[in-house]
Design a protein that fits this description.
The complex is a heterodimer of chains A (140) and B (125). With 140 residues, chain A is an alpha+beta fold. In chain A, 44% of the residues lie in helices and 21% in strands. In chain A, strand 1 and strand 2 form a beta hairpin. The two termini of chain B are 23 Å apart. Chain B has one domain. In chain B, helix 1 runs antiparallel to helix 3. Classes of the chains: A alpha+beta (140), B mainly alpha (125).
Chain lengths: 140, 125
């Protein structure tokens, strides 16, 4: 069993990684919020969802987190009447992505809150380690 | 007489605090993992009680096994709401606990320092 403080820095680093992967998927969603298909009746961009998984690190017995598979949101697409659009079907309706900006922004807030929490943990673990190292410092 | 037991106790509690900190950081890392239950380790009192050696007064007595590590279990949730995802981590609780760890750890190292100064003042003169 290795040092629990280093293990906690490791767990927090995994948390940072998972939250930043989530941030990436969210920004893909936001960037593609209006991406339509090119041919008549084609499906537009489908919203992506990231899954977090709990992984136990065998060496330390600490619960790590890992960003798992990215799946597609199966919610129905929005439609809008735009007869001149290249992706319009025979009735003139265009399918738009099932991305809801408010949901994405709320998710982003949550991701950044999680990220901040993890950086805080790393800071604190470092401080604990340096307290122990300070024991070796000769006192004046 | 056990002259240096203070060092031992302080270091043992620091050990326990470090373990607790690693459980807290695992909780925080999993704050968005569906179905994850917040965990905590058993209290320091419990660990000390388990690892205090019983006196062996007869050759036939079995010496107790050394139990130095704390066990991890699911913490009872203090959260009023139950999330749809089944996750029971509350960031506020975790930060409260980690503040606790910080304070105690700092106090322990200060105690160790003070005791070390006392020993040195004896040996130097």
């Amino acid at each position: 069993m290795s040092d629990p403080l280093l293990a906690s820095i490791n767990a927090a680093a995994h948390g940072l990684f998972a939250q930043s992967a989530r941030m990436r998927v969210l920004s893909e969603n936001i960037a593609n919020a209006e991406t339509t298909g090119k041919t008549p009746g084609a499906d537009p961009y489908q919203r992506k969802i990231i899954n977090f998984e709990n992984v136990v690190d065998d060496a330390n017995g600490v619960d790590m987190v890992e960003a798992g598979d990215i799946s597609k949101d199966t919610a129905p697409f929005r439609t809008e009447y735009m007869p001149g659009h290249p992706a319009a079907d025979d009735k003139g309706y265009v399918k738009l992505p099932n991305v809801d900006m408010t949901v994405e922004l709320a998710d982003m807030r949550e991701a950044s809150r999680g990220y901040t929490a993890n950086t805080q943990v790393i800071k604190q673990a470092r401080e604990l380690v340096s307290m122990t190292i300070d024991l070796l410092r000769p006192s004046s | 007489m056990q002259p240096l037991q203070l060092f031992d106790t302080a270091f043992r509690q620091n050990d326990w605090l470090a373990q607790r900190q690693s459980v807290i950081s695992a909780n925080i890392a999993n704050v968005n993992t569906p179905g994850y239950k917040a965990k905590d380790i058993e209290s320091f009192d419990e660990v000390v009680r388990k690892s205090l050696p019983m006196a062996v007064t007869d050759a036939q007595h079995l010496a107790p096994a050394d139990v130095g590590t704390a066990t991890v279990s699911d913490a009872e949730s203090s959260q009023a709401e139950v999330l749809q995802s089944g996750n029971s981590v509350s960031l506020e609780d975790e930060f409260l606990k980690s503040g606790d760890v910080m304070r105690s750890y700092s106090m322990n190292t200060q105690i160790i320092k003070a005791f070390d100064r006392m020993l040195q003042s004896v040996t130097k003169t």
